[in-house]
Amino acid sequence: MNSIAVFCGSSEGNDTLIISQAVKLGETLAKDKITLVYGAAKIGIMGILAEASLKHRGKVIGVIPEFLKLKEVVHLGLHELISTQNMHQRKLKIHELSDGFIALPGGFGTLEELFEIITWAQLGLHQKPIGLLNCNGFYNDLINMTKTMTAKGFLKIENLDLIIVDNDIDSLLSKMKNFKPKSVPKWLKPERT
Predict the structure, then answer these.
(1) Within 10 A of 170 (CB to CB), how many other CB atoms are there?
(2) How far apart are CA 3 and CA 98, in angstroms?
(3) Which end of the chain is more exposed for a tag (fewer CB within 10 A), N or C?
(4) Does pLDDT of 121 surpass 90?
C-alpha cells in the first residue's frame, strides 16, 4: 500500500488515548512511507494526524470541498491540497487516491465516510482494505451493532468480514497489507456496478 485514506473527527474529543493514537498513526504512516490522504483540515483529530505525519516527513494529501476552504479550517502546509465542488466529489477523489482506508474515532461524518466506502466494497466498486482502529474501545458498540445486523439477517457475514478491526496500529496495518479481496457476490454482476 502506497497511500491510505484516514477518516476521523474534525473535533479532538476528550479522550487523550485517541489523540495519542492519531499521533502514532501519523508517525507510522510517515515512517512506512505511506502517503496520508485525508479531509484537509488543520483542526481536530484530522489536524493532529496530519501534523504528526508531516513532522516525520510523511507525504500528506488533503481533499476538501470549496465551501469548507475557510482559512481557520483548511491545512495550508500539505504536500498537495485538492479542491472539489462538493462532498460527493471529495469522497470519490479520496477513494481514487487511496490504496486502503482507516477509520479513527469521529462523529457522523466519519461514520458516513466509513459506511459509504464499506458499501462500495460490498457492491464490488473497489477491493481495497478497510480498517477500523478501535482506539480505547471507541467502536465496541458499533462492532456489536454489526453483529446484531448479521444475526438478524440484514448483513451477510462475508460483508461484515470486509471490515478489518484492531486496536493496535501495527497489527491493523499488517492485516490490511495482507488483505485478500473477495469476489463480488453472485447476485451482483461487476458490469452492472
Answers:
(1) 11
(2) 5
(3) C
(4) yes
Q: What residues have CB less than 8 Å from 189, skipping those under 6 apart?
A: none
Question: 3-state class of 4 per DSSP?
Answer: strand
What fold, for 3-176?
Answer: Rossmann fold (3.40.50)
| Residue 126 DSSP SS3 | coil
What confidence tens digit (pLDDT) does each residue in 128-162 have? 999 999 999 999 999 999 999 999 999 999 999 99
Question: Tens digits of per-residue pLDDT, 82-110?
Answer: 999 999 999 999 999 999 999 999 999 99
70 vs 180: CA distance, rounded Å: 40
Q: Among 48, 64, 36, which Cα is nearest to 12's?
A: 48
All three cell numbers of 13: 474529543
CA angle in degrees (0–180, nearest 5) for 184-188-192: 110
83 residue type, one letter? S
In the numeric block, which cell numbers belong to residue 143? 462492532
pTM score, whole prediction: 0.92
Distance of CA 81 to the CA centre of its chain: 18
Distance CA 160, CA 132 (A): 12
Domain residue ranges in the chain: 3-176
Runs of H (alpha helix) within 32-139: 44-55, 87-97, 108-122
Instruction: Characterise 136 by phi-psi region: left (phi > 0), alpha (psi -120 to 50), beta (else).
Output: left
Q: What angle do CA 69, 91, 41 make, to 5 degrees?
A: 35
